[in-house]
Amino acid sequence: EVLNPKGSHSVAVGVDQPVTIDVRGSVGYYCGGMNAGGAITVHGSAGPGVGENMMSGQITVKGDASQYAGATGRGGLLVIEGNASSRCGISMKGIDIVVHGNIGHMSAFMAQSGNMVVLGDAGDALGDSIYEARLFVRGKVESLGADCIAKEMRPEHLEFLQGLLDRAGVTGVKASEFKRYGSARKLYNFNIDNADAY
Predict the structure, then answer these.
(1) Is 22 helix (H, G, I), strand (E, B) or coil?
(2) Which pLDDT tens digit goes with each residue over 86-121?
(3) CB 91 within 8 A of CB 73
(4) Which terminus of the chain faces fewer neighbouring Cβ atoms within 10 Å, N or C?
(5) Per-residue model confidence (pLDDT) at position 198
(6) 3-class secondary structure, 150
(7) Residues with Cβ within 8 Å of residue 62, at least 6 apart in sequence
(8) What is the pLDDT of residues 1-24, one digit of tens each?
(9) How many angstroms separate the CA atoms of 66 and 45, rounded?
(10) Reduced to 3 states, what is the DSSP secondary structure of residue 129?
(11) Hey, is 183 helix, strand or coil?
(12) CA dihedral for 99, 101, 107, 108, sign (positive or negative)
């Protein structure tokens, strides 16, 4: 247990054991970075880069998260019970991110794999230059980024999403309320005609 962190940076970074850590207060940069197997709960809000390069385990933020939450995350589950700022899930590589509130602009930029679930709204340029990550948004999307498109919600997506919502402790919400977004796969190979889209 970490008491009164007072916005300290790099709290619970590099955890490599299946331990439970409760952080009683708000934290600064990179809380839970590189987490591999830990169950970390922040009873407050988190500064930039919470769960950055996370490998496995779970991080739960009871408040809001600043920019680039879950950046480059390779595995595990990041739950933000409030809102997340810009570039949430940037370059995510396998992590699952569930945000109960809204997310800011340029979220899931260059997201390679993994799943992002947003119960609220998404800001401008969602999924810009996305690869194979899957995005599920319940609310309004301000705009989609380059090569990101709306996709059909098939039965397998509904089943998967409901399971992820359950894992994240979300109640009273159905998978059928979400829309799915992902890559149009038009920027995978360079084409001079698409130069302005890069």
Answers:
(1) strand
(2) 999 999 999 999 999 999 999 999 999 999 999 999
(3) no
(4) N
(5) 61
(6) strand
(7) 41, 42, 43, 44, 81, 82
(8) 999 999 999 999 999 999 999 999
(9) 8
(10) coil
(11) strand
(12) positive
Structurally, at CATH architecture level, domain 2-185 sits in 3 Solenoid (2.160)
Burial class (CB in 10 A: 0-12, 13-18, 19+), 17: exposed
Among 147, 197, 136, 130, residue whose Cα is nearest residue 170? 136
Residues 49-74 have pLDDT tens digits of 999 999 999 999 999 999 999 999 99
- On whether the CB atoms of residues 34 and 14 are closer than 8 A, the answer is yes
Where do the domains of the chain lie? 2-185
With tokens 């260059």, the residue in question is 110
Q: Is the overall model pTM greater than 0.85, yes or no?
A: yes
The two structure tokens encoding residue 51: 């769960």
> 10 Å Cβ neighbour count for 185?
12
pLDDT band for position 164 (cuts 50, 70, 90): very high
Residue type at 158? Answer: L
**How many CB atoms neighbour CB 86 within 10 A?**
19
